[in-house]
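task queued by scheduler; priority normal; single chain, no ligands, no partner chains; default sampling; output format set to structure tokens
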Amino acid sequence: MGWTKRQFIQSAFDEIGMGDYAFDLSPGELDSALRRLDSMMAEWDGRGIRIGYPMAGTPGSSDIDADTTVPDTANAAIYTNLAIRIAAPFGKQPMASTVATAKKTLSTLTTICVDIPEMQFPAQLPRGAGQKSWRGGGYGNPFFPEPSDPVLAGEDGELDYD
């Protein structure tokens, strides 16, 4: 069970010195932070950082008490980066340690989550002098084979569309 959106928001406010132990956050302030959290997570999703955060169907339909099911390794990245995003509208300056932690944890999360696509060599690229047909590597063709771009059908493999 992951953190709720409210827990991320409260932790972000703690990071900028507006913890609930000293400040009573209004529903409007919570709603503003929730919109920023949802937009940040949508941005991350667009960058390939997909960690199981539940996206809202429409801008006003996000539930602040919804369980996010994100892995625990992503928690610090979420609330520290959210703290940086909500600091200025509330007249706060994030601490240097918060900025450093946000940068480091987002970099780690990006490394874990983002898949780098494989590149294929173009068909015009020669294999090189070491690829002799009698060695079995090139089968008589001095160039790399045509790149294949299969249409994938999920985890089942390629989609045959003959």
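post-processing summary
- The chain has two domains: 5-113, 118-162.
- The chain has four helices and no strands.
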